[in-house]
Design a protein that fits this description.
With 207 residues, the chain is α+β, with helices and mostly antiparallel strands. The protein is built from 7 helices and 6 strands. The chain folds into 3 domains: 45 residues, Orthogonal Bundle (Arc Repressor Mutant, subunit A); 44 residues; 84 residues, 2-Layer Sandwich (Nucleotidyltransferase, domain 5). α2 crosses α3 and α5 packs across α6. The protein is globular, with a radius of gyration of 21 Å. About 5% of the residues have low confidence. This is Transposase. One of its GO terms (molecular function) is DNA binding.
């Protein structure tokens, strides 16, 4: 019987245009099994008289699949995000669900780019979907900044990504880190980059 993550992976690869043969080679299942589950729109029912209990992860799988499509497969980051949404399960369940979606490691070793202590940090926004706040539906965002040397991380959930909120999150992060990195890398965010062309990059003066 397929695990939930394997079923979703087969469906995802099929939607991306993979052939049944290619999916079979990637997952290790035979083509008959692949064909069977491609034709099913729902998870296969478990055999037996005992009614299986739902997983604590079930309410968050749709959100996790969205994040996986965006390229986020880091279990630590995903766990913190769904915990902020109410998930109270263990990391083990999440790892089992995410595992089939992770890319297989390249056999060739790679050298990690290291930065000196205090030199650099990377910052980006993430989306957590909509939630009811004070009786109104609002989008939730997560501010994430990671130090390049220690990989120490600060995260803060907000209802806005405007400049005022961005600066506030930075100050909270610096207080948490007990210091300020020399450089912070941004991914072409609208609140930071005013203009981006092949010959010119303009950034906000407050940054």
């Amino acid at each position: 019987m397929l695990k939930d993550g394997e079923f979703f992976m087969i469906r995802e690869l099929h939607q991306k245009g993979w052939t049944q043969t290619a999916i079979a080679e990637e997952t290790g299942f035979d083509r008959k099994t692949i064909r069977k589950y491609i034709q099913q729109n729902k998870l296969p029912k478990r055999k037996g008289n005992v009614k299986s209990k739902g997983s604590k992860l079930d309410p968050y799988k749709e959100y996790l699949l969205k994040r996986l499509k965006e390229g986020t497969t880091n279990c630590v980051v995903l766990l913190e995000e769904i915990q902020s949404m109410g998930y109270d399960g263990q990391m083990t369940i999440l790892r089992e669900f995410i595992s089939p979606f992770r890319e297989k490691p390249n056999k060739q070793s790679s050298i990690r780019f290291e930065t000196p202590p205090g030199k650099q940090a990377q910052m980006d926004w993430g989306e957590l979907g909509e939630r009811v706040v004070d009786g109104k539906k609002q989008k939730l965002y997560v501010f994430v900044i990671v130090l390049g040397y220690s990989r120490m991380k600060y995260m803060e959930i907000t209802t806005s990504m405007n400049m005022e909120q961005l600066m506030k999150c930075h100050m909270n992060a610096f207080s948490y880190f007990n210091g300020v990195p020399s450089q912070i890398l941004y991914d072409n965010m609208k609140t930071v980059v005013i203009k981006h062309s092949p010959t010119e990059i303009s950034i906000q003066s407050k940054v």
